[in-house]
TrEMBL record:
Pfam families: His_kinase, TPR_12. One of its GO terms (molecular function) is phosphorelay sensor kinase activity. The keyword Transmembrane helix applies. InterPro entries: Bact_2-comp_sensor_kinase, HATPase_C_sf, Sig_transdc_His_kin_internal, TPR-like_helical_dom_sf, TPR_rpt. PANTHER family: SENSOR HISTIDINE KINASE YPDA. TPR repeats lie at residues 89-122, 138-171, 178-211, 217-250, 257-290. GO terms for cellular component: membrane. This is Tetratricopeptide repeat protein. Residues 454-531 form the Signal transduction histidine kinase internal region domain. Residues 363-456 form a coiled coil. The chain crosses the membrane at residues 417-434.
């Protein structure tokens, strides 16, 4: 039974340290502290004192959370008294870091969210210090992500990591971006979303190779571990060998020890026990050389489990016992539990029930301690969730209050303008009144048309004709293919209707959700037309998870490609949908190998329904709305594709859209 408890804990700890300290520059700390404390004694203004108190607090981040908290509280008190908002935000941030070091996660979350509120309020106002405020806000987002991750609130962790990522990308701080990519990969790995984890580890690796970061070997090891979890041993071994070559050039003993353990797991999984044993011993030697009991305990456990698997119970008991001792010394109860359980089972197998009972009791004790710790963790997580919800409600109440004040000011302003306009009307007479009424009528008409087009665009996706055809197809399936095929068709149809109704409530949805809707629709049409066509949907890996698109924007084009491009051709067809980035543009492309747009248009002249003929015009109106809202170009281009013989090769539809985010 191979375990990876210590490895996961090591990665999790590394992730916290990486973001927690990524803005701290490590100098000779005592000298810096002495200089700051000397300046603090001589500070002549309250502003200088507040800044220096925060600077001193930050210097204690590595080794003294109590002193860090004391100086941060002094900075907070002074900043509140003198209304130094930026210094107050930095004080809250330092308090959050101190609370993390003391494992007070609920208090840490409160401190970080207070800092977040201040920096978000300052950002629109601080024209001269905008970059500094952005940097502080990005650090705060990252720290909230860490708190959520530590309490296994992975959704919250990813939300704040992506917020921080956006700001650091804008600032072009590649070293921090790659660390965020690594942390996001670790969160996805913890959720067993291995494809996502691999995607973000590869993004981190690309930046490391670009800037020549020697720590790329750790990322490559992570990638190899993902391949191993996905049962792709050849790719895992290639990654491990690449990482080993880098470690040979740039020494990193802890990273090298982790790599040897990972390679041992590869060889054990592929049945090469001698090679597995060699690598576990190499890992053990490296960890013991640097007195790293986390990794050494893992290596010993791997060796013990390997010997047990080979029937060498004596050696298995020896190494599992050492692993348990190391783990108990450093407080890693998961490893104690695993090792003691294996030891108990080995003694039971040998018939030594006394020793089996002794070690089983140790296993139970470790398990109870873990359960108690997990219960405490669950309570803390619930308390944190309550705090986040309460904070959100307070922010909403504050926003409502500000909106009420704003509405009152608008009302007062409108009243003043009314009298001004009335005075002007008395001067200019009926001519101005007629012009004003004409403009008002034009504005109202435009608003009404835009609303109508939006509604038509959404309702067009589930028109009665489509529903009738689907229900008719279900009826045919029951008669011709049996109930199983009909149930499959009906299931996909109901899922598509549900998705359409859900998406129609939103102005923007994640691109992955749009892809899900398109895939469901295309699979439904494949069933309906007896696999008349094949389809592929591709997405540029640079497209982030929170990039968004108006709902169901591409469905009318896909529907037209099937009904008016492929069906008349009566041959096996292909539809390709692609999402790509081009600078600040999102490019959505729909291609088919049907009869072509021009020929399809000629065939539809006398038979097309009003509903169908309106689809393209409605979509163009939606693009005009997007362009008006974002002040960026949005357009659709339709062209016939021609073969080398000059024959129609199908239709290509290209939508150029501005990049938008679901978090906006």
């Amino acid at each position: 039974m191979t375990i990876n408890v210590l490895h996961m804990k090591f990665l999790k700890t590394l992730a916290v340290i990486t973001l927690f300290l990524f803005n701290c520059t490590v100098f000779s700390q005592n000298r810096v502290l002495d200089s700051l404390l000397n300046q603090l004694d001589k500070a002549s203004t309250d502003k200088q004192k507040a800044e220096l108190l925060n600077a001193v607090s930050s210097e204690y981040v590595e080794n003294n959370p109590e002193l860090m908290m004391q100086y941060a509280q002094k900075a907070l008190k002074l900043s509140k008294q003198k209304n130094f908002r930026k210094d107050e935000g930095e004080a809250w941030f330092n308090l959050g870091n101190a609370n993390i070091m003391l494992s007070r996660y609920t208090e840490a979350l409160k401190s970080f969210t207070n800092a977040q509120d201040i920096f978000e309020q300052l950002l629109p106002e601080a024209a001269d210090k905008k970059d500094e405020i952005k940097a502080n806000l990005a650090k705060t987002y990252g720290s909230i992500g860490i708190v959520c991750s530590e309490q296994n609130n992975y959704a919250g962790s990813l939300e704040y990591y992506f917020k921080a990522l956006k700001l650091y990308k804008e600032a072009k701080q590649q070293e921090i971006v790659l660390r965020l990519y690594n942390n996001i990969g670790i969160v996805y790995k913890a959720q067993k979303e291995y494809d996502k984890a691999l995607e973000y580890f590869n993004k981190a690796l690309a930046i490391q190779k670009e800037i020549g970061d020697s720590s790329s070997a750790i990322t490559i090891t992570n990638i190899g571990n993902i391949y191993l979890l996905e049962n792709k041993p050849e790719q895992a071994l290639a990654s491990f060998q690449e990482a080993l070559a880098i470690f040979n050039e740039h020494e990193n003993k802890r990273g090298l020890g982790e790599l040897y353990n990972a390679m041992g797991q590869y060889y054990e999984k592929t049945g090469k026990y001698v090679r597995a044993e060699e690598n576990y011993y190499k890992g053990l030697n490296v960890f013991e050389d640097v007195s790293e009991k986390y990794g050494a305990s893992a290596s010993l456990a791997y060796l013990g489990d390997l010997y047990a698997k080979q029937g060498n119970d004596t050696k298995a008991l020896e190494y599992l016992g050492k692993s348990s001792v190391y783990a108990e010394e450093i407080g890693v109860l998961e490893q104690v539990k695993s090792s003691e359980k294996s030891i108990s089972e080995l003694y039971e197998k040998k018939g030594d029930y006394k020793q089996a009972l002794i070690h089983y009791k140790k296993f139970e004790k470790a398990k109870d301690s873990i359960n108690n710790a997990e219960n405490i963790k669950n309570m803390v997580r619930e308390e944190m969730n309550y705090e986040m919800e309460r904070k959100a409600e307070m922010q909403k109440a504050e926003a409502d209050k500000k909106q009420a004040i704003y509405n009152e000011e608008v009302k007062r302003h409108n009243q003043q303008m009314f009298f001004v306009v009335l005075f002007i009307l008395l001067l200019f007479g009926i001519a101005f009144l007629v012009s004003n009424r004409r403009q008002l009528k034009k504005t109202l008409t435009l608003q009404k048309e835009l609303a109508e087009y939006e509604q038509k665009a959404l309702h067009l996706q589930m028109n009665p004709h489509f529903v009738f055809n689907c229900l008719g197809s279900i009826s045919s399936f029951i008669v011709q293919n049996g109930t199983d095929s009909a149930i499959k068709y009906l299931s996909k149809f109901s899922k598509l209707m549900r998705l359409t109704l859900e998406y129609s409530k939103e102005s923007l949805i994640p691109i992955d959700s749009e892809i899900e809707g398109l895939r469901n629709y295309l699979e439904l049409e494949q069933l309906r037309f007896n696999n008349l066509f094949e389809f592929t949907i591709t997405k540029d890996p640079d497209i982030e998870d929170d990039m968004a698109i108006p709902p169901l924007l591409l469905q009318p084009f896909v529907e037209n490609a099937i009904l008016h491009g492929l069906v008349p051709k009566k041959e096996k067809g292909v539809i390709k949908v692609d999402f790509a980035l081009d600078g600040e543009k999102l490019i959505c492309t729909v291609t088919d190998n049907g009869i072509g747009f021009t020929k399809s248009k000629e065939m539809k002249v006398n038979s097309v329904t009003v509903h169908k003929s309106m689809a393209l015009e409605i979509t163009r109106k939606r693009l005009e709305v997007i362009q008006a809202f974002t002040s960026k170009t949005s357009k659709v281009e339709i062209e016939d594709m021609m073969t080398s013989e000059g024959q129609s090769g199908g239709t290509r539809i290209v939508l150029n859209l501005p990049i938008q985010y679901a978090t906006n």
